[in-house]
Hints:
Blueprint: E1 10-15, E2 44-49, H1 60-67, E3 74-75, E4 84-91, E5 97-108, H2 112-130, E6 188-197, H3 202-217, H4 226-236, E7 245-248, E8 256-259, H5 273-280, H6 282-293, E9 297-302, H7 305-317, E10 327-329, E11 346-351, E12 369-373, E13 378-380, H8 391-404, H9 418-421, H10 458-471, H11 490-495, H12 502-524, H13 537-540, H14 552-557, H15 564-570, H16 574-585, H17 596-611, H18 629-641, E14 645-646, H19 689-698, H20 711-714, H21 732-762, H22 764-768, H23 781-797, H24 808-831, H25 855-863, H26 871-884, H27 888-896, H28 899-905, H29 915-926, E15 944-953, E16 966-972, E17 980-981, E18 988-994, E19 999-1006, E20 1015-1024, E21 1030-1039, E22 1049-1053, E23 1055-1057, H30 1090-1109, H31 1118-1123, H32 1128-1137, H33 1152-1165, H34 1173-1190, H35 1198-1211, H36 1218-1231, H37 1235-1243, H38 1248-1251, H39 1261-1271
Parallel strand pairs: 7-14, 9-11, 9-12, 10-11
Antiparallel strand pairs: 1-2, 1-6, 3-6, 4-5, 5-6, 7-8, 12-13, 15-18, 15-20, 16-17, 16-19, 19-22, 20-21, 21-23
Helix pairs in contact: 5-6, 8-12, 12-18, 21-23, 21-29, 25-26, 27-29, 30-32, 30-39, 33-35, 34-37, 35-36, 37-39
Amino acid sequence: MSNGGRFVDYFVICGLDTVTGLEPDELSGENFEQTPLHRAFKAKVLEHYPDAVDWNPFDRDAVGMLCMPKGLTFRTQVDERSPIFHSYLITREDGSRTYGFALTFYEEVTSQAVCRAMQTLYAMHNVECAAPDITCQSTLAVGNSSSPEDTIFPATRGLSFTTGLPLEDGGCELPRLNSYDLSCDTLYVSKCICLIAPLPFTQAFRKVLMQLYGAVTSPQPPPLPLESYVYNLLYEVPLPPPGRSLCLLAVLPPPILCLRPGLRELPLLDYPLRELVEQLGLENLLQLFTCCLLEIQILLYSSDYQRLMMTAECITALLFPFSWQHVYVPILPASLLYFLDAPVPYLMGLHADGPGKRSCLDIPNEANLCFVDMDEQSLDVPEDLPLFPNKSELAAEIADILREFDIPVEPQITTSTMGDRGRTTFWNSSLAWHEDEANGNGLNPVGHPVSERNRGNGATLTRLQSLARQAGISLRDLPPSSCHIGPLSNKEQEEGILFESGELRDLRINARVREAFANRFMQMFTDYEAFVIAQPAARLGGAREQTHNFDKASFLSDQPEPHLPFLSRFLETQMFASFVDAKIASQGNKRDCKDPLLSLFNARLERTRRLHVRTPTIRNATYHRCTSIEEAEEPILQRLNKVDHTAVHPHLLNMRIGQGKYAPGFFPRLQRDVLAAPPSLGRWGKQNPITMWRKQDRWHPGGSTPPDNDHTEATRGLNKGLRQPKLSDLSPSVFAQTNWKFVEGLLKECRFKTKRMLVEKMGQEAVDLGHGEVTLTGVEESTLIASLCDLLERIWSHGLQAKQGKSALWSHLLTYQDKEDEKTSDVDRNLGGTRSKSGRKSRRSPTMPRLKVTVTQDMRHVQNIDEIKTDVGRARAWVRLSLEKKLLAQHLKQLLSDCDLTRRLYKWYAFLCCEDEKEQFLFHLLGLNAVDYFCFTNVFTTVLMCYRVLVVPSHTLGMALTTANPWVCVSGELGATGILHVPRSTLEVVFECANLGRLTTVQIGHDNAGLLTRWPVEYVIVRNEITGHLYRFPCGRWIGRGVDDGSLERILVGEPVLASPGARQSLRRHYLPPAPRLAVAPTKKHLVSPGQIQEVLGEAVNNLVKHFHKPEKERGSLILLLCGQASLVSALELVLHHGFKTARLFQKPVFIWDFIEKASEHIAMSEDDEQCVEPARRSCHLSCALGKDAGLVRPGPTHSHFCTVVQAINNAPRSVGKDGKFQMFVCLGARDHVLHNWLATLADCPANAHMYEEWAILRDRSIVKALVHLLQVLHGFNITLEGSLVKGVDV
């Protein structure tokens, strides 16, 4: 709605209502140790002018709270009573904002009833302090601020002190220090005057309020009644359009200048970034900026209200082209402290009652909180906060900008008071008023003296005076270093800058620093439009979780690796989603874009593309400094050099005789009838100045848009799913409704996050089921899991009774653990005398003992990790461990099943106390069991893990006993163990070692000692005792000399087995590997046809191809595809076994490796034996011909490499059998891309004639040629072998 083009909407007076007297502030906390002089009383809105405006309804409760957040405060003549200025804003539920500017000062209390009531309160306070069971702390430091949580004594609660009771003769004598005595002390009470406006011209409104205050406190009264000045501000001063400057006269000279940025400039910011850097330091500023971008809860803490507002406005202004979408309350009144319990992202400011009070704060959720202590220059950020891209380079660029203005980049202690900053000269007749005859303003002569020394610079001094008047600065008040008169540099002469004032310096610093931040986003999102997925208008207005409008996977793949941790989290924020939504909505009509920030950002990108030939930025982390910093200052200087409009000066109104008089030193209530309505015509029958400006502006070539399209008004919309604090109604029903909105929002967010995690993990399978799009995948798994941990912390923080640590979830878990430990100890004591010992032990086959799975057991696992130092880290580790074990929903259900504990820890309105919502929440978490996570294993890679190994011998082939000493060696993705000796009696070993990651192979063998050395092994089971992962490694072979292939060690390949109790609830089907067939030797008769063998080999090769074409995060185990069931090794074994002649009766069995050794011998002898030269040539011709057909002829001697590999495998210091050597042979050939050549070499070996039947595949030239072509497909993939497969083989 249009704001009518007014500079000010309301003028408000707040303070003590002498009719109702002193009233206790029921919204403040109780603290009876405070003296009455330092307690807070209720402040009221005494008057506001006009009564109402259509475009901005007056919110009496909100204005009263924010004008005087601490309520009424009292002082005596010995206390500090300097005026204090602060600004605030009111954000409505629709996201629109109204800015307020308040000046608080002290007036003498003239009501004797109030004075007597104050003395009565002191008498009651002294009586209570004299009681033996109450400790009185009545001596407080002079000038301390009263706490917003203080209140009057209970005996006076609810009473209205219009009259006071005189002290009896025997009453208590009041202490003189920090007390009040009606007979000798003067009582002062706080009062506030406030301006409510649509735009935050902070410096201008501060000067206006200080001049109004000075008008009633100055010994020399102003020439006009106060009503004239207020009327002029309300009705005759227009709001400057974008890109224009306005000069106005508040009360007395000097005039005040307002500069409003144009549509092609960054939005209005009239708060000094310099002050923020001085308070926090550059490093802390960038940390706070990162937290704001990632939508982390931010709590500002300071004893200065203006500092809170300045920090919030500055940090959100740096977000361009994005905007804060969540709860935004820079100054949080005492009545809304419960909003700190909000489980949503917020940016709030909390007033500090004094130094050392932070320890008394009760903040429910600190796990994902950024706490900014402005007074102590400290910043606490979450543990896992990623670095902002090119943070050090950006910090260096900003530091260089600040050094140009002699601004330190480290935090500085500010000693100046708000009263010093608000000091203004109220009358200076030597300054000339700005000439503006169109508004009827008169002319005054210029009488500024010029010294003889500078008489030659008359034109320069005239220009200096003009700039000073336009900027609202008196040259007499400037320090000597601020005025530069004399020889000027060329740059200064060109720009017309003859002095460096404080306000102009802040404007220049703001422009430069903001351009540096904007340039950083332009570099990061230069090509963002290429990744936007257009959506139909109908879908765009639907639910967020059903719309995917940005190709995050492709965008992240084009970014430098160091930027991914930050960008992957930033792409999940609400501000980025709203930014992309606005982009899609504007694609149909770019000229009618409703988001000014987006339009400005796109225009800058387009301009950069036109002026510069941009090089590709993919995977390029080079930092480019901003080149448009100086250009950003030019519009500011142009508006300073030429003022677009001077407002009508205050003038005498049509008032009755006697109106407008007031007592000096007291700000009166103004005449309501005079300020009730705006003028219909100008002063001399002309049009209203606002109407005139609008009419002139239509003919201006740079015409403006309606004020309600301003950057700061249209772009900071509030997320509709969240709720902004409502100050006008604080009833219990509103409180309950607000918390219910929080509960619904948490449940909706849980549903969205769990579904997103499922779709992300399932990948293409989810797309096939219709649950997402291919472009959805690509966001890092760790980002989504960290987001889930943050959600759980916010849920457990909602409605918490009392905070016990930074992590609400871990505090709950610790309390539950203590309670369970007490139950366990009681049970142990009761059963201690009834336990019986049995001497007999049942003899059973080796089995893996059941894994104990409880909430407390997993907590102990986390508590034993020394690398985790904080409660927040332990809570997140516990969530990751439970999620990996598929027990998160079960654990949380068990935790919440203790209803008595939950009710003791949480308030009635907490999320965890809502039964229906809690059940739905656990149901959504249960869906995560459908996918496998290794979020604990992959993150904590260096922690000690406990593993249990069980060897299961075979009873089908013979005795399972052996006299040899077994050993195993376990290997995983992150490392391998050494030799682990297995006791013969139990065949089980438990050990601890560094995290091995996901297990891949197990080497098993023995030392061949004793008489019974032949040992049949069925399989090996390995379990991680912490994560519960169970791996089965099939064997089904003999280990020992003289049996099977004579192997003393075997390399077993396995895969995970579903074993945990939580996994039984999984929705996804898991397939166990079939038990292998125990074989003594290859069978003589092969029933598999050549066509079937070709299909098996093709399937194995196809699985490898699909493995490498999948995204890296979706790939399975490569070693399974090479050596597991239905792998490449088993397929080639079928090829070479087809038609293979086995040994006759009473002869040793023959293996494939025997044939490969003979082929290697024939090739080696071909150099010396001429009879073997021709077959070798034929073999070489065949392999080369086959390679030539496919265009993949490998340079170098193929046959010599074949012989080298065979010899290296035979010479390896390992006791691997012949089948194990064949497995190494195939893996090395796949790694070196020579399998197809080796198969052709074996096909032309002369040993084929007496080792293979005529119908064997290896003797069929056409089939061999097809198989060679099939194996050539693997030539294009980089196959990396695990060390356990080729251990000891030096090739």
